[in-house]
Specification:
By secondary structure, this protein is mostly helical. The chain has 2 domains: 9-86; 91-242, no CATH class. It is built from 10 helices and 3 strands. The chain has helices at 2-9, 11-14, 18-33, 39-53, 60-72, 80-86, 131-138, 143-156, 178-193, 216-230, and strands at residues 98-103, 163-169, 236-242. It has a 3-stranded parallel beta sheet with strand order 1-2-3. α3 (18-33) packs antiparallel against α4, α3 crosses α5 and α8 runs parallel beside α9. Mean pLDDT is 81; it is low at 1-11 and 197-211.
């Protein structure tokens, strides 16, 4: 679990020590003085800084965070080329649309496929070392927390996430209880509309997927309102994909 937390929340960005801070600043200032630079030069500067300060390799999100602070404090002028260089895994949002995968809770599947993998506390047909599954386990299969972790990951990497393709995974969605289906999608929209919202505010009280929150009619009405609100939100869900079979 600690490994997943480090991977997806990227704790190093939030708790950089003095050496890492200095290393980031040196890399940024060195690149800013150059007329031309590319990924190979960035990698060279990273290695040089890590050897000098005897630290692990500086990540791009760390550089981006320090760079933004330097720009804000007017210690360096904004440089679009540098920002592009620091963006991590740009290919994931190169189309302008960020894919956000969230998983529903493990639930019995009507299928009896012999070849389908089955693990405890993991939706059928999935295994616990897949990135999306690791995020879901870390979040306790809470749709709001899964959305927040993913969106925070995009922000730390400097990748745009204003247009989202929401992918709901976890097996046979159409076989899940109707009330849970509506609540899950509603939670995702609320997370996109209010990125800092806490799960507790959604009054989530579930036991064995038998939700005790509002009626289905009320949930549907809430969903319509959140969908309308999402049209002008910072993170707009422009596509929704539901996995109807494992």
């Amino acid at each position: 679990m600690k490994k997943a937390k480090t991977q997806f929340v990227n704790a190093r960005v939030n708790v950089m020590n003095a050496s890492e801070q200095k290393a980031c600043e040196e890399i940024i200032f060195a690149l800013a003085k150059m007329s031309k630079y590319n990924y190979k030069i960035l990698l060279y500067e990273k290695k040089k800084a890590s050897e000098k300060y005897k630290i692990t390799m500086i990540s791009n999100p760390m550089l981006l965070v320090v760079y933004q602070k330097l720009v804000k404090n007017k210690k360096i002028k904004r440089n679009i080329d540098l920002e592009e260089l620091f963006r991590k895994r740009r290919i994931r949002t190169s189309s302008g649309i960020a894919s956000v995968a969230v998983l529903t809770k493990p639930f019995p599947c009507p299928g009896k496929c012999v070849y389908c993998p089955t693990q405890e506390n993991v939706p059928k047909s999935y295994i616990d070392n897949e990135p999306a599954v690791m995020r879901a386990i870390l979040a306790g299969y809470d749709p709001v927390k899964q959305m927040q972790i993913r969106l925070r990951g995009f922000e730390l990497a400097g990748n745009p996430a204003d247009k989202i393709e929401l992918i709901v995974m976890g097996g046979t969605f159409s076989y899940l209880p109707r009330k849970y289906q509506v609540w899950f999608i509603l939670s995702c929209f609320m997370a996109a509309n209010h990125n800092q919202v806490k799960s507790e505010k959604l009054k989530v009280k579930s036991k064995n997927l038998k939700l005790k929150i509002k009626t289905q009619k009320q949930l549907l009405e809430m969903l319509r309102k959140e969908q309308k609100k999402n049209e002008k939100a910072k993170y707009r869900i422009i596509g929704l994909t539901l996995e109807t079979r494992p």
